[in-house]
Amino acid sequence: MTITPIIMAGGSGTRLWPLSRGNYPKQFLSLSGEHTMLQDTLSRLNGLVHSPAMLICNEEHRFIAAEQVRQLGVKHSGIFLEPVGRNTAPAIALAAFKAIEKGEDPLLLVLAADHIIDDIVSFHQSVNKASELAKQGKLVTFGIVGNKPETGYGYIKRGEEFSTGFVVDSFVEKPDLETAKHYIASGDYYWNSGMFLFKASRYLAELKAFRPDIYNACKKAIEIQSNDLDFIRVDRAAFEACPDESVDYAVMEHTQDAVVVPMDAGWSDVGGFAALWEVSTKDENGNAFTGDVKAVDTKNTLVFGEDKLVATVGVENLVIVNTKDAVLVAHKGQSQHVKSIVQQLKAENRSEATMHREVYRPWGKYDSVDNGERFQVKRITVKPGAKLSVQMHHHRAEHWIVVSGTAKVQIDDTEQFVTENESVYIPITAVHALENPGKVDLELIEVQSGSYLGEDDIVRFEDRYGRVKG
C-alpha cells in the first residue's frame, strides 16, 4: 500500500510579519537554510517509499508553489487550489476524494509545508511505524516528544500502548505554564504536530460519520473539477458552502481509531520569531544574524537584514527585521504579538499587511522601487521564455528601459526587439506585451505615469497563465 504525501501549503503566517505576508507567507520563505520551507518538506520525503506528493494551496499562491516545486525538480500529482480557506478537514477531504478517484486507496501522509524537522532519520522511522497502524485502519497522529513546557501548542494525551504507538486518550487545548510543566513531567503528553497518516477511505468514512456536512460539500465540490496547467480547481460555490473546521475537531477527537506515534525529530512549527531564533544557528553571544549585520555588545538577538546594513549596539533579547518596505523591532519575549500589528495594518487597508514590495508573478517578479503622485518605478525581472499577458491600460503610459537581456516587445501591430541600454514607450490604451526570448533573465526598469497606477488597471486579452477574465 503506497503512501501519498499531502502537503498543506495554505496559511498566512502573520506572526512572522514582515517576512511573512498574505501574498508570500512563511511556507514559501527560506528561513532555515538554502531551500524554502515547502521545498524542505518535499525534500524530507526522500528515503520514504511514496508516490508523487499532492499539494493544497490558496488560489493566489498557485504560481509560487508550482515554481518552487519546479526548482526542486520533483514530480507531484497535482496542486489543489482552494477557492477559499476552509481549514484542514475540508482540504484533506478534497485530497482523499482525489486519491480514491481511480479505485486506489493509498495511505495519506498529511504534512504542513511550514514545519522544520532536523532529524530526517527519526522522521522516517516514525512514519514507517505509523504506516503499519494505518494499514490496519487506524487514524494516526504524530505526537512530538516535547523538551520543555510549551504553552503555544495543543497536546495529545496517550492511553494504553497499541502496537508501535499508543491509543489516543484525549486531545488537550493549549495549557497555561504550570499545566504545561505537569504535562512534560508526566511523560504521557505530546505536542500536537498537526501531521497525520491514514487510509484515504478511512478518513472519508469517519468524516462522513461525524461531519456529513463537510463530507457532502467536498464531495459535491470535487465532482466538478477542472485541470489548468499543474492546478486542480473544484467547484467554488460548493466549497464556499463547506463549514470551516480542523481535522482534529471534525474527526480525530471523535473517532475510536485514533492512535498516536511519538516523534522525536527536532520538530518546530516556527510559530513566531522566538521559535525561529531557537532553531537558527547562533554565534557565541546567542545571536542569529541573516544579511549584512554589525553588532557591538549584543546578545540573544535575532536580526534579518534584507537590503541594507543593520547595526546594533548594547541590545539584548530583541527581534529586528528589516525588509525593503518595513522594519520590525520587538522584544523577543513579546514577538508573538506581532500579529496585532498586522491586524492594525489590515484595519487601515495598508498594503504592507499582505504585499511585499517585491511581488512574484508566474513570468518572474517586480520590485516597486519608487512612486509619487503621478508616477511609479518598477524593476521587472522576466524569466527566460516567459511572457507577460497581452494587455492595455486606460489610465497610464509606460516607458521600458532594458538593463540586461533582450526583450521582445509588441505594441499594437508592431513587434520589435529591445536590448540593453535601449528603451521603448507604450502610450495609454496601446495593446502591448513583453516577452523574454533569451536564455538568461531579462531585467528592465518600468516607469509608469498617469492619473491612476493601480494593478487593477489591466485589461488582459491573452495570457498563457490563465489570468484572462471575461
List keywords for this structure.
470 residues, alpha/beta, 6-stranded antiparallel sheet, 5-stranded mixed barrel, 30 strands
Walk me through the structure.
- It is a single chain.
- The protein has 470 residues and is α/β, with parallel strands linked by helices.
- The protein contains eleven helices and 30 strands.
- It has a six-stranded antiparallel sheet with strand order 20-21-22-29-24-27, with no helix packed on it. It has a five-stranded mixed barrel with strand order 6-9-7-8-12. Strands 14-16-18-19 form a four-stranded mixed sheet, with helices on one face.
Give the class from helix and strand content and strand pairing: alpha/beta
Mean pLDDT: 94
Strand order of the biggest β-sheet: 20-21-22-29-24-27
User: Helical percent range?
Assistant: 10-25%
What does the main sheet amount to? 6 strands, antiparallel
Low-confidence stretches: none
Distance between the termini: 45 Å
> Which strand-content bin applies to the residues?
25-35%
What best-fitting shape do the alpha-carbon axes yield? globular
- Tell me the radius of gyration: 24 Å
How many beta-strand runs? 30
Count of helix runs: 11
In a few lines, what is going on in this structure?
The protein is an alpha/beta fold and about 475 residues long.
